[in-house]
């Protein structure tokens, strides 16, 4: 029976962001296990919308897992995707994860950052408390992955501190600042980060092949958990 991974990104009105997401989908399809299809979906802004993708997939198979192409827990993972899934297994957000920390460190180093610079881990932000916890964990993972200077968290919206404030605070302490773009693809939030007046700004995570490793890890874990739950339910019958 065919298995389906529904890779659900946020969606963006910026074409360059859509190009990056489609490139990541190409990587996922190229690395998919035999018999597993990768379906494109979005939770906001434009289609194919995840509710429609789920409905179409259900007509073909029961072996479906939704993997958010989102970096942190938030409203979309806790509410929108749960409603769209209708009981299907949903993997956690991609972050926090050591592999993402490695990618972020590579992006920071590519800017020419120095060992004494303050790295501002610049995330989109969310009204959900879990998102802040996730981003703070990512900051710790970046330190473990090799960032020598301070790593502080900041947000483009919804959460505090805001990115320009974190940049100003680091600069007031006499440190050069590097905004580490903790976004998947170019779009609205990457532009907010670029305008935060950091001395250096890294590129978004992008369609790095290592992201696919995280996606498949999330898929395998969520699928195994769903099978275990189904097996336990069958034993109780």
Automatic annotation (TrEMBL):
It comes from the Bacteria. It comes from Microbacterium trichothecenolyticum (Aureobacterium trichothecenolyticum). This is Sirohydrochlorin ferrochelatase. PANTHER family: FERROCHELATASE CHE1, SIROHYDROCHLORIN FERROCHELATASE, CHLOROPLASTIC. Keywords: Lyase, Metal-binding.
